[in-house]
Design a protein that fits this description.
Structural class: alpha/beta
Number of strands: 5
Bound molecules: shikimate-3-phosphate
Shape: globular
Number of helices: 8
Order of helices and strands: EHEHHHEHEHHEH
CATH superfamily: P-loop containing nucleotide triphosphate hydrolases
Distance between the termini: 10 Å
Strand order of the largest sheet: 2-3-1-4-5
Mean pLDDT: 96
Strand content: 5-15%
Length: 166
């Protein structure tokens, strides 16, 4: 099986869906954020504050390139698609699945979240980032799954149905 890359905004459920999907498909699971944190033994928030976003972006790109090309479900960080080479890498080695979640749902889920430096800003900036990212997610997705009002099991089943019919 080619890799399955889950993309989408922060809080769209990439990690929960990815873990569950990998169990359903009986394949490996990689979370690029978790891989960066484990390698550098720092939280993402600490990497951002001590080294800046650009350092995080280069660590993230390295992790992406270290993933085997087959049999992995990969949950990516919400900004991985900012780098065109990352998008190319994902396209070359797998299928890109966009988990599309509304701003309202995300806002509700991440209300008390302080672990994401790019979310930890005022509502206007959050909304602006969300809008800016939409076109990027849409333009690189092979498959889009709308997640609002769907359960985790429903989302996993929907992704799976697309994958098996490929
Ligand atoms: C980011 C999303 C985060 C993490 C970092 C930057 C982004 O991942 O990679 O804080 O730029 O959207 P999640 O999408 O898993 O929250």
């Amino acid at each position: 099986m080619k890799n399955i890359y889950l993309i989408g905004f922060m809080g769209s459920g990439k990690s929960s869906v990815g873990r569950c999907l990998s169990v359903t498909l009986n394949c490996n699971y990689v979370d690029t954020d978790a891989a960066v944190e484990a390698k550098y033994n720092k939280t993402i928030a600490t990497i951002f504050s001590e080294e800046g976003e650009s350092a995080f972006r280069s660590y993230e790109s390295v992790e992406l390139r270290e993933i085997p090309y087959n049999n992995c479900v990969v949950s990516t960080g919400g900004g991985i698609i900012k780098n065109h080479n990352n998008v190319e890498q994902m396209k070359d080695t797998g299928i890109i699945v966009y988990l599309a979640t509304s701003f309202e749902k995300i806002d509700n889920r991440l209300k008390t979240d302080l672990s994401r430096p790019l979310w930890n800003q005022n509502k206007q900036k959050q909304k602006q980032l969300f809008e800016e990212r939409l076109d990027l997610y849409r333009s690189c997705a092979d498959i889009t799954v709308l997640t609002d009002d769907k359960s985790l099991d429903d989302i996993v089943a929907e992704v799976r149905s697309y994958i098996v019919s490929e």
